[in-house]
Write a structure and sequence with these properties.
This protein has about 675 residues and is mostly helical. The chain is built from 25 helices and 6 strands. The two termini are about 60 Å apart.
Length: about 675
Amino acid sequence: MTYFALIPFLPLLASIILLLGGHRWRENGHLIGIPAIGLSFGLSVAAFIEVLINGPFTLSLYRLFESGSLTIDLTLFVDQLTVLLLLLVTGVSGVVHVYSSRYMIGESRYNRFFAVIALFTFSMILLVMSGNLLMLLISWEVMGICSYLLISHAAERPSACRAATKAFLVNAVADIGLSFGIILTFLTFGTLDIPTILAQAEGMQSNTINILGWMGLDFHINPLTLIPFFLFMGAMGKSAQIPFHVWLPLAMEAPTPVSALIHAATMVNAGPFLLVRLSPLIILSPSAMTFITIIGIATAIFAGVVSLTQSDIKKILAYSTISQIGFMIMACGLGAFAIAIFHLLAHGCYKAFFFLSTGNALRSVEPGHQHGNHEHHVHEGMGILYGGALLLALIPPFVLFSGSYEYLWGITGFVTATIGFKIIALITVFVASQYLFKGVTSLFVQDPKTYWPASEEHSLERQPIRPKIFNGSILTGLFLVTIIFGWLLTLFWSWFADFLAPVLNFPGVVAFGENKMENGFPFWLVISLGVAVAGWIYAYSKHIRLQHQVSTKNKRSSFLYVFFWNQGYFDQIYDAYLVTPTIRLAHWLWKTIDVRVIDKSVYFIANYSVYFARSLWRIVDIRWLERTVGQLLGPFNTDGQLKQEMQFSTLQHQVLVIIFWLVALTGLLYYLI
């Protein structure tokens, strides 16, 4: 199974070849990158099959470092979680490589771009396959460097350079916490090997360390309480969680393929993966779990509202990503690690499609692609439309409260996950029913603008648009498709839960298999159906009110809209209270400490040294050393010509001076030692 080590090293090899080749590859860099990523994807599929049949395995490749009790091996750890992330990373990266081969045509940095995204892919693959925390940290930092290079790809644009700098600095600050977490983990467990740490985690709950022992003080803490906080700080930076979220919207300065890679397969997914990978350690700190949940909820709600106020399609997608990652973080905080990974995989697939198709979508709605503009009114069949919206609103309760999906939330046995699922599912049902009602009414009732080819202008001008939802054949087909799709989802969720169970079977909580959904009267399904109907009634009443009165915005709603449109003023607050004071402090330190203290001290030492050297030269060199040398050479200078030719700058004279001072300094050093 050693050949599975090629999964990360093939993209690394492609990156090295492209970097060494330089401009000699011209615009053929994709011929190196695409096959390398394609082979990595094929090997990832083989690794998935291997884990599915024979279970997890470890590859020990090389011993990097050994000093005392610290031993660091280049180890690749492949389990159920690893292979799922490998399929996502290599699959999306392969699509991005193929897409970029035509998207980046004409770029002056064509080969450099493919070299960096190959290195970016390598760092994420190595992250998910890392068997020890040092390798994880190295790949974590390489990913940050690659993000800087890719965001600043168009280096001629100042905005791209500023965005890359902000992304690098924000992640660098957050990575300080990750580094402290890894150091504290080594001090606690005495190893950096991830499987060993996870196996020993439960037995270390009573251990304490004296963090002020180096100062001679006594202050003991439980490291398992602090380690999750530090590790989560690094996850907050990479996954753009509040307050480290400000870099991701600006990262849209990168080319579209890079945005797809960052949002779908790498970078932002590193945070949830880290929490799930170290979940046996994270769950031992209830305070950290609570903090993770709060940050995830705050980020999901804030970013979701901000995305509704933006007009730039890329910023909408960026804040949508932040919101979705917030939901994943929240799921980890509640203990629903399986649903976090399921959400991560689903989000990665559809967000990659969204970003790669954004360019085509924007081009399709350009003025040159639109033909005609005719309004079509629907005045009849309103009851049928509203009834259809109600039927659609009743679908989410059946999906969310199906036994296997609810079981996917409760696979770890945490009570918080079960309660969180009930609350989130009911909120989702209520909001979805409103969106479905608004979608139907805005599409077929509120005078949508429909564009028709010029040849169909007269034939379609007076024909109303009516959805033929209640046609018998269509209803039968939809019913069968819904049943088949629901059955397939149920099978997939059950398989997914069983597949991840060995990774998430934590000791100390309800054992896997003991938290099955109860049989009998479907109480929560009935409640969710009632919530769906309530959401539909609320949307219907609001729609009726808007038809009879003019909507007016009060000052409070206007203030909230402006607040979220400006993204909560996070950037302005950072500039006013962090960036500007830091620059002013740096300027004061340079002017006061550097120029007035350090520079003057150096000048004083230099001037004093020169003065002291001149004094010694006059006393020792001219008066004593010259006289001594003259006496030694006197008998050999019978005609007096040698004495006249001898000058202070002669080579012999300088050699004697050097020998004298070397002997003097050697004697002084010997005396002091």
